[in-house]
User: Fold this.
Amino acid sequence: MSESSTVFPLLTVTAALPAAGAILTAAVPAARRTAAKWLALLVSLGTLVLAAFVVVRFEPDGARYQLTESHAWIEDFGVRYELGVDGIGVALIALTALLIPFIVLAGWHDADPLETRSRRWRPTQGFFALILMVEAMVILSFAATDVFLFYILFEAMLIPMYFLIGGFGDRAHTGSDENAAAQRSYAAVKFLLYNLVGGLIMLAAVIGLYVVAGNFSLTEIAEARASGSLEMATDTERLLFLGFFFAFAVKAPLWPLHTWLPNAMGEATAPVAVLITAVVDKVGTFAMLRFCLQLFPEASKWATPVIIALALISIVYGALLAVGQRDIKRLVAYASISHFGFIVMGIFAMTSQGQSGATLYMVNHGISTAALMLVAGFLITRRGSRLIADYGGVQKVAPVLAGTFLVGGLATLSLPGLAPFVSEFLVLVGTFARYPVAGIIATTGIVLAALYTLVLYQRTMTGPVKEEVRAMPDLKARELVVVAPLIALLLVLGVYPKPLTEIVDPAVRHTMSDVQQKDPRPEVEAAK
Amino acid sequence: MENLIALLVAAPLLGAAVLLCGGRRLDRAGHRLGTLLAAASFVIGAVLFFDMLGRGAEERALHQHLFSWVPVESFRADIAFQLDQLSMTFVLLITGVGTLIHVYSIGYMEHDERRRRFFGYLNLFLAAMLLLVLADNYLLLYFGWEGVGLASYLLIGFWQHKPSAATAAKKAFLVNRVGDMGLSIAIMLMFTTFGTFAFGPVLAAAGETGEGMLTAIGLMLLLAACGKSAQVPLQSWLGDAMEGPTPVSALIHAATMVTAGVYLITRSGAIFNAAPDAQLAVVVVGAVTLLFGAIVGCAKDDIKKALAGSTMSQIGYMILAAGLGPIGYAFAIMHLVTHGFFKAGLFLGAGSVMHGMNDEVDMRKYGGLRKYMPVTFVTFGLGYLAIIGFPGLSGFWSKDKIIEAAFAKGGTEGWILGAVTLLGAGITAYYMTRVMIMTFFGEKRWQPAPDADAVPSAEPAAEDHAGRMPHPHESPKSMTVPMILLAFGSVFAGGLFSLNSAFVHWLEPVTAFEHGHPPIGAAAVTASTVVVLLIGVGIAYAQYGRKPVPVVAPRGSLLTRAARRDLLQDDFNHVVLVRGGEHLTRSLVYMDHTLVDGVVNGTAASVGGLSGRLRKLQNGFARSYAVSMFGGTAVLIAATLLMRGV
Assistant:
């Protein structure tokens, strides 16, 4: 028995395509690994087309959730297969579908089998199949409006991610192969354990929510909460909120639960590192906006001061740690921790500018980190080292590589004209309107971001040419195809972010009314 | 007509895009394209200027709204331009001097293999600077503000293979970012106070909020101005910025970008006028920097660094004038324009000298050049007379008015400020005479160029000259013609502006104007200025003209030694900020690895007994934990479902 609220289940199909593609890719015979790569690329491009349909079909000023689908799944438990997207979900589905083709293309040779392995070993197929599988789960989790369905996806995506981190490490490492394998394994298990613990606590909260509410439907529970027909004791609400928030704060990741990220991003290949920070981690911040604020509005407001403080610590701490890194990829990881601090701060500032800014930040951080990290990956592959000190003077031998690296860095430090500036300023101004001190402390982040980015650029790209990089080739066609569109997108969204804000703003308006918050009025107007 | 405004920005922006993305094919024509587009922007600016002159004083401002940039509820930032008399003044200065320096660079950068990229950066700078002065709201101004910062970064570090250039570029960007924090916070304060950050509504409503808020906004804007305009305490980057090619020093670090702080304060006049405390801070910063820069300028033997100290000092005059309110705004801008002419001319002259002297920058190794480089000598000399305020030349008209206005501030403050500006004028005369004598007069003290590695010279072309004696010669036409044109500006601009107070009347509708009334009478101010000037020239002549200049700098007094080291500010920064920062990040990295990681892991271990062996992962226990947790979760879910009787 099923009732469908749309004619065509567009969201399901958008997620099903990469899932099916993953299975097909995995089934490609061992000898045909190039075919597997092309298949994965085509599937990811097809998914991008479907995501474009989602964007086009979505009406920003229409109903809150659109393209809804609803089917009974586990009836006795009240679990339904329920999908629907608001503007925030649409933006993030678009981001995911957009980044995966670049990730696939950038990782083209990352999983080519090593000579020593037997011929029947099929790492390439597995690598691309896992990426597509993650894509399917992430897209579905951005669309899920059933809490249990979301939880299942939230946990299930750990499995492919675990294998991507543990099974396909960065081949540029120092020390012996065994040592590198051990470090990789450590990073993968750490990733898994942190997120599993978060997930377990969330599971308890999910079950608790069911006990209180009697079903798992986000829309139904949120409506019942808003209309007052579903009362929650203050303590119950706070406990449930904490259960959800903890899991999301591990994934986001928020200080002090962040230490798995530098390990994971450092050991994984650059495209997988992008997958972690630009795509998968966004599920955490997205879920804060969608589940924490909607299901537990009062508890969210209760916890806000502490969360703002943690976010501030993340911003400053992540940036300072980035300054002190010697490994290029770990530096980007700590920069991401700083940026996730901005996102969380924007969400919990509870202003339109803060939340719209946070949503834009998720999208823009995805694109800018992809640009920076993928170019860093190209660089690292050429030299076979992740250490900053092993580089110097690269701009002289590979000016295009250096130029794109600089643009990625400038996006990371939120230079006006590039997309991240818009979102960072919105978050700052949105926070400042309610918490001036927090807003001012957070602006130190703009100085620190300039510090770690420009120091990285100076040490790797400028100065006399190091002997080891003298023969380094410039970007190849495939690599340019990866980087150029990302940079173009950063420029377009930096100067004309309106298409994005038009989709996101109405959704934020809904969230603001969920938590019953209004933007603070300007002093002069308020005085009148 | 207003639709032309966007073209002002679009022309150089197009140039930057084409030149930077175009690739090697454009190497041969790139510099011409870049120059052409800069000139196009100037022509459009001139058309708009004459159009503006045709309208009445109050109807001159034009507005162009392109599109909505960041609309989020009440937060409205637009890509929209405002061209009024103040913006127009800057447009003509930026595009005019900018075009001349493009032309000059054709010759100056002729042998640089990356000349195309250089012109791309120059075009990018023009576009960003025009955006800065044409924006109709503070956020768009911020866009241009950081845009010029980027162009400055790229151009200071143009010779990136030199570590000193790369370091200087990074330093400039970082110090400016500290200032940018001020601009960010000012915009946020405006938004929460007025609900907008567009010039029109903010400046109109400035009176409706408390003085405390306006003071806060004013101080934050001042912080921003200190960064961009190299004012104390954020001045330390400007001297190092001389690592950039000399045309860059002339355009960005003398004539235009570094004056953006003066623009910001003048533009925000309505805020400062209602916040006397903020104004006082502005005046103090200006006065301190005025002396600071002048003292540093006296001690430098590097011709570009001496001029950089001078720039700092002259901008101090402008900032001081802007802090005086309606009695000073117009003169701040007037000095800004005349300074744009003579300082750009002086830098181009310095570049011409270096061009003829194997890229040597040490004035102690110059001497007697007037015979060998007559055009450079005359144009540089006119710029020299203009900057010291020789009666009748441009600098005289603008600086004299600032000194007058400083006295007119009234009370003890007025006397102090007046004395400082007078003293500054004397020191200016001293250090500029010193530069003039050491470079063009006296004995030849030329030295063979050292080995490229031995001395960090500003221009890397020095490598080609290693070991050769210099053969000074006049520079090519593409370089001398811009110098001649700027010399005309240095001589006549100030006088023209002062005819019937033309410049003041021109700006009055935007900045407002009040006559200042100095306590000692204008004639007395002028007379004392001339006396101080002569004293400065006299001392310099006695020290450098009457006796030979030693090739190796004498040890000098304590003050001289401190001034050579930029009055020790870099040493302070190094010890406190750089060293301190390194220790902080290093200990944080250690802490993150041991403490945070350890505590979180430890908590997890003690709470759930989950990962006691996380540190011994190789043995596979943790992995089996993970698997069993996963399995456990699955079993748990399945069991719950079964209990419900599926």
Remarks:
- Chain A touches chain B through 82 residues (CB under 8 Å).
